[in-house]
Design goal:
The protein is an alpha/beta fold. It folds into four domains: 187 residues, 2-Layer Sandwich (Dna Ligase, domain 1), CATH 3.30.1490.20; 145 residues, ATP-grasp fold, B domain (D-amino Acid Aminotransferase, Chain A, domain 1), CATH 3.30.470.20; 129 residues, 3-Layer(bba) Sandwich (Glucose Oxidase, domain 1), CATH 3.50.30.10; 318 residues, Phosphoenolpyruvate-binding domains (TIM Barrel). It is 37% helix and 21% strand. It contains 30 helices and 30 strands. The strands form six sheets. An eight-stranded parallel barrel has the order 23-24-25-26-27-28-29-30, surrounded by five helices. Strand 26, helix 23 and strand 27 form a beta-alpha-beta unit. Helix 4 crosses helix 6, helix 26 packs across helix 27 and helix 29 packs across helix 30. It is elongated.
Length: 802
């Protein structure tokens, strides 16, 4: 197909044509020309060029009047902005499209109908010539019209697109970013619709939107047309796919989270002038993911191919922001838009800024965190766009959702909270670009939060964004990452919460020395594993109801445990890949297991759980053997299906040599064979018997990680939780240090890895110094101690060399 004076087909357009067709259309043309041959499906269409826009203005003779309309505008005066914007749009709408231009548009539409069928449905999308550039990429500045049929609707929507160059938000955005209104043109894309109204659609980023971690593809999706996801009208499903192992053909979905997806946008009824409408999603569909795992992986592969293409074109890594749609008639997946990501990818990589709450209070509202920052101020609930002029700078903006019309006041907010939306919705995108925290998908925030309330918005605690009562103190820490010297001793981290993994991976480190399963089990699974395997033993109907609610779509409830555990561990392993990630198998005491849902039916009372049925002794015992099998199945999934072979497994509280033999045999039965596929198994060294028999234990394990907390308790005979004996619990005691020294030297003697993952080096720099002088291979620290203790270790190492 060949275009004409004012029309260019996608096959004629490349990324170099931004001045003529804008970023959106240039990118569609680039992908249609270059990536359809790589099996990425792009719907065909054409661009009405920016020359056509100027032709409309010149033919109507309204350019001078438009300029006069915007002279002396103060964008902070929302009322005046709305008045002038409306006048500018009406000038263009009244101008109409000249006949010569309209004939070209009709002719192009006719050709598209020849390809797709009579009266074909199209999307009419604005594409400003300064839009989607690295320094000019606010979301949704101009309008999009969906399900357009026939000449009349097509002409009307083109008129409205041209006029949308002067929406209030677009005018405000250009003023704030130094663009001359009359050096920015507008192109229009006319593109075959994908029938995602009958299926699902969403947004993809080839980078983690919150931390800038760039080894993942982040996919969001919901039922129906994609506008609801973009506008934040639904809380979508979320999927994370790990790129390095995806490229090796592993099924590397490391995380999935189901959204509520309460409504979907579909086509309007028959001849109705309502082009699209929202309807409720049936309860059964809400409980399902909107796409299956195979489709998630296919979309992730599309995204990686697109990212690689744009990176090659620009000669540097270019993370992408992509829109996708699934056709409900054919089941095919399409890419309908792609542009460079413009927030995380442009941040400085040599400085790490971290926010910390210094105090907490009652949590009033929770949602999805955006921005990894903290802000405090007075709540201002805005019910609709007509009330925007009442908003004051520095307040916390609370709304059901936001649209691009809200942008003139969003820039004055200290933080944003919305009832609806996911991490790729309008409120999330704009808050990132503004550098302010946002809590999205908070469901009933507008009901709970009242105007004038003092609150603190924290998005610095992982995936969950929290709104606390009152103005709480917080601080930031900034670390210059450039020029930091590497220590010979490996500086690793202790980590429990997978939600923190991507952010913490930015701190200079040598991997994870201790990842705890307990946090994942209590926070994401919540159910005793044996209650999932044997629900028939759970007698309380209310407890069974809780289990059913949590496990929902899983026919085999044990699969829920395996999948959630694998995703939690997989997220941590991916964040630090290919560095080693040492995961300790479950080490709950019997009273802690009992507190899990259904736990009372599988645990028994112990006088001293600390020295009771815990760690290795559970794994081969009939009372927990099946539960341990689920843990093994999850770890095998991480290593074999996700491809994360940097995962090292660690056995806690292994009292005797016979116990080591039994545990390794149990692991082997469940497909985890030490040495197979590079699998290493470490032992927690936390009992005096572990130290005294380290030569014997070395026959069964590849490394030893000293748990200084329990080793101190058992060496000194002190309960660390006893207030009376608190002063006697000290890892620096000479007896404890001798135990640690024997463990390190024993590991060296047997050519095994030695590490320490207790609290002591985080609290006492002198203990870290002792470890370095002993020649330990690694020290695993709490994340907030890594930089400080790392510098101390470096100083000690230099002293030893001298």
């Amino acid at each position: 197909m060949k275009g004409s004076k004012y029309v260019s087909w996608f096959e004629e357009i490349s990324i170099d044509d931004v001045p003529s067709v804008g970023g959106k259309n240039a990118s569609l043309g680039e992908m249609y020309r270059e990536l359809t041959k790589k099996d990425i499906k792009i719907p065909n269409g054409f661009a009405i060029t920016a020359d056509a826009y100027w032709h409309v203005l010149e033919s109507a003779g309204i350019l001078d009047e438009l300029k006069k309309t915007l002279e002396g505008l103060d964008t902070d005066d929302v009322t005046d902005l709305a008045k002038r914007g409306k006048k500018a749009r009406n000038l263009i709408l009244d101008a109409d499209i000249p006949d010569d231009l309209w004939n070209e548009i009709k002719s192009a539409y006719d050709k598209l109908c020849e390809q797709y069928g009579e009266d074909t449905d199209v999307a009419v999308r604005s594409s400003a010539t300064a839009e989607d550039l690295p320094n000019a990429s606010f979301a949704g500045q101009q309008e999009t019209y969906l399900n357009i049929h026939g000449y009349h609707s097509l002409k009307d929507s083109c008129n409205r697109c041209f006029a949308s160059l002067f929406t209030d938000r677009a005018i405000s955005y250009r003023v704030n970013n130094g663009f001359d209104h009359f050096k920015v043109g507008l192109s229009i894309g006319v593109m075959k619709m994908v029938r995602s109204d009958l299926a699902s659609s969403g947004v993809i980023f080839t980078i983690d939107t919150e931390t800038g971690f760039d080894n993942v593809v982040f996919i969001t999706g919901a039922y129906g047309l994609g506008e609801n996801v973009v506008q934040g009208l639904v809380n979508p499903d979320e999927f994370y796919v790990f790129k390095p192992t995806l490229k090796e053909n592993f099924k590397s979905i490391i995380k999935k989270q189901k959204g509520s997806k309460e409504i979907k946008m579909i086509y309007g009824r028959g001849d109705s002038r309502v082009l699209t409408r929202n309807v409720d999603v049936p309860e059964a569909e809400r409980k399902q993911y909107c796409i299956n795992d195979e489709e998630v992986l296919k979309l992730a592969n599309f995204a990686v191919t697109i990212e690689d293409h744009y990176s090659q074109k620009r000669g540097k890594h270019v993370p992408m922001d992509i829109e996708w749609a699934k056709d409900g008639e054919t089941g095919e997946l399409f890419i309908v838009q792609a542009r460079p990501e413009t927030v995380q990818s442009l941040k400085r990589k040599d400085v790490l800024e971290t926010y910390y709450l210094d105090d907490t209070s009652d949590i009033i509202v929770t949602g999805r965190s955006v921005g990894a920052k903290i802000a405090a101020g007075k709540v201002h609930v805005i019910a609709d766009v007509s009330k925007l002029n009442e908003f004051n700078s520095g307040e916390i903006l609370v709304a059901d959702t936001t649209t691009p019309d809200w942008e003139p006041v969003m820039k004055r907010a200290a933080a944003i909270i919305t009832n609806k939306g996911g991490r790729t919705c309008h409120a999330a995108i704009v808050s990132r670009e503004l550098g302010i925290p946002a809590v999205v998908g908070a469901e009933d925030a507008t009901e709970i939060l009242k105007k004038g309330m003092d609150v603190t918005v924290s998005c610095a605690e992982g995936d969950a964004g929290r709104v606390y009562k009152g103005i709480l103190p917080f601080h930031t820490e900034t670390v210059e990452l450039e020029g930091i010297e590497k220590t010979k001793t490996e500086i690793m981290m202790n980590l429990g919460n997978p939600e923190e993994a991507f952010a913490l991976s930015m701190i200079p480190n040598d991997g994870i020395g201790l990842a705890r399963l307990e946090f994942i089990i209590t926070s994401y699974i919540k159910v005793h594993p044996m209650a999932l395997i044997h629900p028939e033993k759970v007698e309380d109907k209310e407890v069974l109801g809780e289990i059913d609610e949590l496990t929902g779509r899983y026919e085999n409830k044990a699969d829920f445990f395996v999948e959630k555990l694998a995703q939690g561990v997989g997220t941590i392993a991916a964040a630090f890949y290919p560095k080693p990630v040492v995961v300790r198998m479950s080490d709950f005491k019997s009273n802690e297991y009992e507190s899990l849902i259904g736990g009372e039916y599988f645990e028994f009372e112990e006088n001293n759980p600390m020295l009771g049925f815990r760690g290795a002794s559970r794994y081969y015992d009939e009372r927990y053997r099946e539960g341990f099998a689920l843990e093994c199945k999850a770890m095998k999934k991480v290593r074999d299906e996700m491809g994360l072979t940097n995962l090292i497994l660690m056995i806690p509280f292994c009292r005797r040599i016979e116990e080591a033999e039994k545990v390794l045999e149990e692991m082997k039965k469940n497909g985890l064979v030490r040495g197979e596929n590079g699998l290493q198994v470490y032992m927690m060294t936390e009992i005096p018997s572990n130290v005294l028999l380290i030569d014997e234990f070395s026959r069964y394990f590849d490394g030893f990680s000293i748990g200084s907390n329990d080793l101190t308790q058992l060496t000194l005979g002190v309960d660390r939780d006893s207030e009376i004996l608190a002063s006697s619990f000290d890892e620096r005691d000479e007896a404890v240090k001798r135990m640690v020294s024997m463990a390190v030297q024993g590991a060296k003697r047997n050519n095994k890895h030695s590490g320490l993952c207790g609290q002591a080096p985080s609290d006492f720099p002198e203990f870290a110094e002792f470890l370095v002088k002993e020649g330990i291979d690694s020290i695993s620290l709490n994340p907030d101690s890594v930089m400080k203790i790392g510098l101390k270790v470096l100083e000690v190492e230099k002293g030893i060399e001298e």
